[in-house]
């Protein structure tokens, strides 16, 4: 369900929308901590380019820049959040990366997807490289 559909659901829809936003911020913060534990340096968060959207996290490790898209989902055991990384989102994400790489003259880089899934009281994190 997209955000606008949730928002149009009346006052209960607003609560769902806000909870989704809070969980999304929580997931991005958690991913930053996860990356730092794995010895990544966080370079930027929520880097925005009007034409294509945003890059959630830009990180650096071992002379390589990592452009990270974060997908989060809570309380759904049978659904993988990476399914939301569709062809259009992937294309826009790669356009953003190309713009950033050309603007800052970067040599070595990769695109990554990190999913955060809350199942009951457990958090599951998956890191996909070269997506």
Give an overview of the whole structure.
There is one protein chain. The chain is of the alpha+beta class and 131 residues long. It has one domain (3-129): 3-Layer(aba) Sandwich (Trna Endonuclease, Chain: A, domain 1). It is built from three helices and five strands. It has helices spanning 3-7, 10-37, 87-104, and strands at residues 41-49, 53-61, 64-74, 109-119, 122-129.
Short summary:
With 131 residues, the chain is α+β, with helices and mostly antiparallel strands. Helix content is 39%, strand content 37%.
Roughly what is the average pLDDT, rounded to an integer? Answer: 81
DSSP strand (E) fraction? 35-45%
- State the low-pLDDT regions, or none: 1-18
Helix content: 25-40%
User: How many alpha or pi helices?
Assistant: 3
Structural class: alpha+beta
- Major sheet: 5 strands, mixed
Tell how many strands the DSSP assignment holds.
5
Q: What is the CATH class name?
A: Alpha Beta
Query: What is the overall silhouette?
Result: globular
* Total domain modules: 1
CATH topology: Trna Endonuclease, Chain: A, domain 1
Could you give the order of the helices and strands?
HHEEEHEE
Q: Quickly give the CATH architecture.
A: 3-Layer(aba) Sandwich
Our measurement of the CA-to-CA distance between the termini, rounded to an integer number of angstroms, reads 24 Å
């Amino acid at each position: 369900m997209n955000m606008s559909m949730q928002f149009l659901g009346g006052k209960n829809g607003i609560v769902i929308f806000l909870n989704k936003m809070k969980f999304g911020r929580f997931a991005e913060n958690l991913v930053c901590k996860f990356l730092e534990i794995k010895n990544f340096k966080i370079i930027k968060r929520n880097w925005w380019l009007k034409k294509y959207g945003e890059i959630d996290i830009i990180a650096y490790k071992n002379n390589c820049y990592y452009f990270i898209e974060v997908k989060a989902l809570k309380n759904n055991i049978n659904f993988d959040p990476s399914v939301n990384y569709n062809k259009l989102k992937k294309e826009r994400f790669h356009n953003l990366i190309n713009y950033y790489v050309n603007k800052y003259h970067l040599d070595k880089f990769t695109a990554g997807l990190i999913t955060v899934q809350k199942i009951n009281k457990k958090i599951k994190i998956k890191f996909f490289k070269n997506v």
